[in-house]
User: Which sequence fits this backbone?
């Protein structure tokens, strides 16, 4: 019997197994979900699409076209919060904008408040 995959949740990391994406090693971090779709940030892509977002049906993410690389409870909570903060800065943001987003996130974590 195949192992049941966990429900799609924020912070999970998936690898896109489409033939053209395997070559690029495209990896997507789930940043949020609704009833039918997940919003994902491209975290790694040898094709240069890092930082872009994609909206993917939950059924696709849990199907054979994607591989779960890291579950939401696998990592350090600060790392996940930093990823979201950097994603929120937006693709093409300046280095100083990314640094400010990261600094706000770290300070909020130190104070025990959400980012």
Assistant:
């Amino acid at each position: 019997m195949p192992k049941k995959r966990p429900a799609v949740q924020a912070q999970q990391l998936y690898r896109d197994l489409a033939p053209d994406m395997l070559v690029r090693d495209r990896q997507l971090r789930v940043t949020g979900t609704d009833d039918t779709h997940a919003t994902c940030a491209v975290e790694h892509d040898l094709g240069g699409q890092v930082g872009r977002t994609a909206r993917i049906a939950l059924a696709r993410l849990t199907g054979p076209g994607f591989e779960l690389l890291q579950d939401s409870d696998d990592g350090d909570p600060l790392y996940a919060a930093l990823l979201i903060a950097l994603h929120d800065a937006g693709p093409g943001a300046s280095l100083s904008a990314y640094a400010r987003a990261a600094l706000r996130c770290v300070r909020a974590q130190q104070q025990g408040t959400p980012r």
